Amino acid sequence: MIEATTERELRHAVGKWRAAGERIGFVPTMGALHAGHLSLVELARKHASRVVTSVFVNPMQFGAGEDFTRYPRTPEADAAALAAAGCDLLFVPAVDVLYPPGSSTRVRVEEPSRGLEGDCRPGHFEGVATVVAALFGLVRPEVAVFGEKDAQQLAVVRALARDLHFGIDIVAAPTVRESDGLAMSSRNVYLSPDERRAAPALYQGLEAARAAIAAGERSSAAVTAIVRARVAAEPGLELEYAALVAADSFRPLERLAGEVVLPVAARAGTTRLIDNLRLRVD
């Protein structure tokens, strides 16, 4: 596996592959990799002959008081895991590589960014869109893989790639879960033992909602009430939101129809958990 830290090193390696007619797949991450991240690399390999993975803790997507300084960083373990997973190139840029001195460009994707995470974390999606646009410009992949766990982010990235004509296929990877249903996340390391025991109630609320929808419930208010009730029954969790939205636009829905997402967020102590249910409703 090649390791690159500069634009020149990255372009040299990727340019050689592209000149040889190879298809480039890309997986952007913030590191502290777990099995969920590695599943993205495996999926990228199915869509491309070469896979580039970036590790960059993006300061622009962290708000005031968030965990930028203490976000888990495990560079040696990340490199070893990626090499074992078959990644061809690991890109680990410094901040001034992605944001050169004097950089003033910001990218905003309007509709999918509104509400939910956009309200809870002002400026977050502008940071996400800006760094993803920069990475797309550097790597210039044919395909990029993003996890479904960050459902609103996935909608933002799809709109970004479409609206700015990047010509990149955005592939969604299913959420990878622990044995009790908790969605894998780098931030799960923050959970205390008691918080970790409480955390799966968020997934249990989603599964209860899935069962209600399968039984014919089509009212968004009724479905989200089921999630709220399950989370409220777990004193170790505090629900921030549960909503039903259209999968692409993230517009709120009163009645379920078509491709829908039920995104949820909750706090276990100081740790913030997000998850979602994605399904097609006839």
Give me some keywords for this one.
282 residues, alpha/beta, Rossmann fold, Pantoate--beta-alanine Ligase, Chain: A,domain 2, six-stranded parallel sheet, four-stranded antiparallel sheet, 11 helices, 39% helix
**Span from first to last CA?**
45 Å
Taking pLDDT < 50 over at least 5 consecutive residues as the criterion, the unreliable ranges are none
The level-1 CATH class of the largest domain: Alpha Beta
Oligomeric state, counting identical vs distinct chains:
single chain
How would you characterize this protein structure?
The mean pLDDT is 97. The chain folds into 2 domains: 172 residues, Rossmann fold (3-Layer(aba) Sandwich); 91 residues, Pantoate-beta-alanine ligase, C-terminal domain (Pantoate--beta-alanine Ligase, Chain: A,domain 2), CATH 3.30.1300. Strand 3, helix 3 and strand 4 form a beta-alpha-beta unit. The strands form 2 sheets. The protein has a 6-stranded parallel beta sheet, with helices on both faces. Strands 7, 8, 9 and 10 form a 4-stranded antiparallel beta sheet that branches. Helix 7 packs across helix 8 and helix 10 runs antiparallel to helix 11. The chain is 39% helix and 20% strand. The protein contains 11 helices and 10 strands. The longest helix is centred in the middle third of the chain and has 16 residues. By secondary structure, it is an alpha/beta fold.
